[in-house]
Amino acid sequence: MDVSRSAVLTGHVIASLLTNLLAIAALTGVAFLLGSSPSASFLDWLGVVEVVVLLGFAAGWLTVALGLAARFPETGRLASVPLVMLPFSGERAVV
């Protein structure tokens, strides 16, 4: 059976999104079990989940594009390293 390359890549991105949703649900559940009582409304929470999922979707397709543009598998793996370090780029050291 012939499977298109785009179907495999789309499946990986969708699986990544589902993993992100599961992680969000687990973190939220643990926070509520530990006694967190946020003042945000349900729509505010829904907006936060939407932004996180959209960022995960964008990052997933960006890594797919970087992997497709790479000439060798090693360079494809190394191309996503700056994305991993991106959240730490805005921090400032407090001394």
TrEMBL record:
TM ranges: 12-33, 45-70
Alphabetical keyword list: Membrane, Transmembrane, Transmembrane helix
Source domain of life: Bacteria
Protein name (database record): Uncharacterized protein
